[in-house]
Amino acid sequence: MTDLPTIISIAALLAVAIALVVQQQQSRTAQAVDVRERHFELIKLMLDHPELDYNATERPPADERMTAIGMSLWVAHWNTLWHMGSLDEKALRFNLDDLFTKPEARDWWHKVGSGWSSKGSRKERKFIDIVTEECTSATTRAKKSAPSTPPAGRVESVKTA
Asked: What is the pTM of this model?
């Protein structure tokens, strides 16, 4: 008879554990749905307002603030995915490589990168480090591929045969 309370306690503990596992799965599913909805809204926003799209080729020249807002939205989205474990380092670097092909994006990150996030977690610092590394790498590539121009005042002569 003394084993009955022990069995009931074990069964209750098991029921609580199962409920916690189910609740965790439901929470992850809700997060995934929220992220997909946010991604859809970002795409929709970019279609409705091309000036927010950092990759838009035809943009009026006076929209730097709107482009910066768009870049910030995308980096925040990738940050959320990073913290959820839904975006690995390889995918993050791929997205950042695309972002930093534009000089406006590199300039933006150089201005805001150090203060973009105030979170001190190890995972957040790693995210910021990766973004900064990719920006630096893109800046270096851009400098190497830029056509060299002769110094001012010096004219290259062309020989004709």
From this structure: 0.66
